[in-house]
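TA notes, week 10

Several of you asked for a full example with nothing omitted. So below is the full record: structure tokens for the whole chain, then the designed sequence directly under it. When grading your own attempts, check the secondary structure regions first.
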């Protein structure tokens, strides 16, 4: 085979996927599969990215409206990694879709209005599965090696999504509760209509609150659930390596972990276990999580000969990952007794002196509003805390955008967090 015989379009697509930043990875995947499958939109739903769990490309009227609840419902219908063709509720209406799930990360790929529409394009489906698996693994790698700037933006986006959902919940809950009170009134004669509409409104209220709870679940993860996911991640190693991996359960009532902390902690422990398993004399590894209310405390220990050192390239890489979360990694090694690694990950970013923001020339009231934004507060809460109207809060927010040179609350929050402004 000569160079001219190689499948260069496919190779170039793979290279583009490998180099793509997370913000463009959906576009690159859509371009790569276009020769085999057309679509009106492509959506990736991945809980590895806690701040932005959707990666989207295609028709704006679809990608701007598709919701986490819709994607979550569709994913629950998929039993395995086989391609699924069918009709699903997406962006508020039934649409023809092709969906695939990635086993290890549980990420979901959805193509709306796929062309061709039937599962008889075997070669095309094989290529689609290959490129999707490559993309899903690449997302995991990029998140695992995320720099501090990504982690700050991720946490800010999570806080913003939670704020928006809370505002929607307040708005619609008030409307629906009022509707329920009116329909249950004894002054209404049409009992059948009242019962029917009451049931509909009640289901809508439950659905809205379920959506709010689901969004909260993406932003924070109970420490016990996060540890169980770690156990599932390591299950293949414990089954086939011949090395015993012991898991010491964290307290059930420990503080919930921010999503990016939970994900990073699992990646760090997986990395430590893999490094320890590469040693020739290891037969047992123990991993233990605990939470003191302010930090996630991780301990991983092996029973090897004590040959592992902090200068090992893999340990250095993991240490940089810990430092990206402003955490600490310490290793104790004793010859003949093995390595004992301690990791501490703060659950909140450390506060820095607010003097760093002096160059923004903010008025006292503007600085106070920014501090509330950085803590994830909504306009109504800010107004109540400051004793001003919501319109005045909006006025200060607009001024903040101009002075900080940002275009959204998310950007303002990320900038504030990068300067240590947190609750």
């Amino acid at each position: 085979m000569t160079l001219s015989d190689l499948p260069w379009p496919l190779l170039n697509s793979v290279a583009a996927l490998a180099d793509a930043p997370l913000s463009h990875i959906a576009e690159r995947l859509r371009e790569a599969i276009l020769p085999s499958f057309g679509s009106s939109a492509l959506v990736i739903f991945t809980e590895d990215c806690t701040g932005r769990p959707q990666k989207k490309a295609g028709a704006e009227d679809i990608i701007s409206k598709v919701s986490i609840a819709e994607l979550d419902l569709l994913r629950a219908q998929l039993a395995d990694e086989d391609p699924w063709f069918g009709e699903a509720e997406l962006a508020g209406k039934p649409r023809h879709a092709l969906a695939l799930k990635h086993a290890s990360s549980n990420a979901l790929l959805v193509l709306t209005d796929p062309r061709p529409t039937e599962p008889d394009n075997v070669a095309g489906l094989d290529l689609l599965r290959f490129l999707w698996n490559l993309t899903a693994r690449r997302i995991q790698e990029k998140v695992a090696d995320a720099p501090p700037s990504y982690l700050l933006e991720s946490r800010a986006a999570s806080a913003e999504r939670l704020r928006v959902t809370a505002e929607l919940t307040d708005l619609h809950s008030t409307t629906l509760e009022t509707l329920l009170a009116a329909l249950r009134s004894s002054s209404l004669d049409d009992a059948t209509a009242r019962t029917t509409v009451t049931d509909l409104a009640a289901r809508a209220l439950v659905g809205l609150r379920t959506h709010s709870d689901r969004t909260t679940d993406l932003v924070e993860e109970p420490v016990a659930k996060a540890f169980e996911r770690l156990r599932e991640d390591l299950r293949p190693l414990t089954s086939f390596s011949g090395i015993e991996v012991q898991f010491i359960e964290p307290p059930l009532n420990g503080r919930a972990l921010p999503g990016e902390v939970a994900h990073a902690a699992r990646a760090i422990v997986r990395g430590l276990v893999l490094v320890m398993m590469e040693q020739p004399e290891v037969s047992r590894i123990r991993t233990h999580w605990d939470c003191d209310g302010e930090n996630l405390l991780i301990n991983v220990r092996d029973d090897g000969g004590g040959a592992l050192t902090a200068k090992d390239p893999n340990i250095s890489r993991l240490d940089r990952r810990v430092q990206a979360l402003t955490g600490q990694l310490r290793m104790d090694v004793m010859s003949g007794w093995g390595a004992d690694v301690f990791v501490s990950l703060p659950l909140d970013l450390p506060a820095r002196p607010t003097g760093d923001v002096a160059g923004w020339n903010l008025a006292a009231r503007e600085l106070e509003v920014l501090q509330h934004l950085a803590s994830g507060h909504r306009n109504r809460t800010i107004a109540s805390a400051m004793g001003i109207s919501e319109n005045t809060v909006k006025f200060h927010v607009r001024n903040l955008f101009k002075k900080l040179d940002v275009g959204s609350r998310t950007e303002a929050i990320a900038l504030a967090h990068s300067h240590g402004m947190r609750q």
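Residues 351-355 have pLDDT under 50 and may be disordered. Use that as a sanity check on your answer.
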